[in-house]
Amino acid sequence: MSIKTFRFFLLLFVLLQATYFGLSWFYPHAIPMPGFRMAFWPDGLTMEAAHALPSAQRWTGALASLPTLVLLVYASWRLDGLLRAFQARDLFAVAAIGHVRAFAGAALGALLLAILEQPLRGLLWRHVLGDHGAALQVGVSSEALLMMVACGLFYLFGGVLQEGRRLAEENEGFI
């Protein structure tokens, strides 16, 4: 796959994430499609529970999950910057190293915020909105743990690029 194609899919990913966010919080209904049914709802809720949310809970839930989406968009923007640097063959440029490290940090941050979103939402609903039946739940999946490892690997890759840059500058000094 070319970098240009990957950048297209990255843009598509961001648009789909934003669409998912909007539909899951503000339209948690089944959408009939030819041959199948598509439905969106927030993590930790069923479609029925999301549909039955009062307006205040819907908005506070969306506001609690918005930082995760914003950080994910930022991580994607930094990944796109890295891909643009790779297209320009600037593998060891300071900007490319900054992009890879910022992407790794932002992706890890978005992942951690996604994990903390459900208990934060429960705390808001319970203590701010007075819904004492709101559950406080935390869930970490094996996929989330794998993504944490991948983020760490990307951060280490940034260190490899930094060392490559240092060696290239050192070799230029000898010539």
From TrEMBL:
Keyword Transmembrane carried by entry: yes
Keyword Membrane: yes
Keywords from the UniProt entry: Membrane, Transmembrane, Transmembrane helix
Transmembrane domains' residue ranges: 59-79, 91-116, 136-157
Protein name: DUF2975 domain-containing protein
Organism: Pseudoduganella rivuli
